[in-house]
Specification:
The protein is built from 4 helices and 2 strands. By secondary structure, the chain is mainly alpha-helical. The protein has a two-stranded antiparallel sheet. A hairpin with a 4-residue loop joins strand 1 and strand 2. Helix 3 runs antiparallel to helix 4.
Length: 156
């Protein structure tokens, strides 16, 4: 706050030097003004960093508390169609490997692994204790001029 007052005063001094035609005083005051602005920027950066670190620490603590209270959900087995696709890719990869087409076989193995990971990825379980948000998107269309307006309504 004090630096902002000093900066305003220096700007007034620069204007006064400019009106008087005192170029040397104006240059000196401009240099001092730049230094004051740098100091203010450094202080603001420090305050932002402190606030970020506090928020980060509280977030880490809340995440640790949340992970301690929740039980892990076992990964779900892939559905029948996905499992069938995995088996087909593994079979083709084996055939290609036997025929000496190692690169193609490796690609199919990678695809099968990706399908397996995709199928066993745990689904997010909604927690009723957390705040939920309702998002409603309203579109207004003015046909003659093809002007589209979208309005997003978020309620908690």
């Amino acid at each position: 706050m004090e630096l902002s007052k000093q900066i305003r005063q220096k700007m007034k001094d620069i204007d006064a030097f400019d009106l008087e035609g005192n170029t040397e005083g104006k240059i000196r005051a401009t240099e001092e003004l730049d230094k004051l602005k740098e100091q203010r920027a450094e202080e603001q950066a420090k305050m932002l960093l402190e606030a970020f670190n506090k928020d980060r620490a509280s977030l880490i603590n809340s995440l640790q508390n949340a992970t301690q209270t929740t039980t892990p959900v076992p990964p779900a087995a892939p559905d029948a169609r996905t499992q069938e696709m995995i088996n087909e890719k593994l079979k083709k990869a084996e055939e290609l490997g036997e025929n000496g087409m190692v690169d193609e076989a490796q690609k199919l193995l990678d695809e099968a692994e990706a399908l397996k990971k995709l199928a066993t990825r745990p689904q997010a379980v909604p927690d009723s204790t957390k705040m939920s948000a309702h998002v409603q998107i309203v579109s207004l269309v003015n046909c003659p001029c093809s002007f589209h307006v979208k309005k997003v309504i978020i309620s908690f």
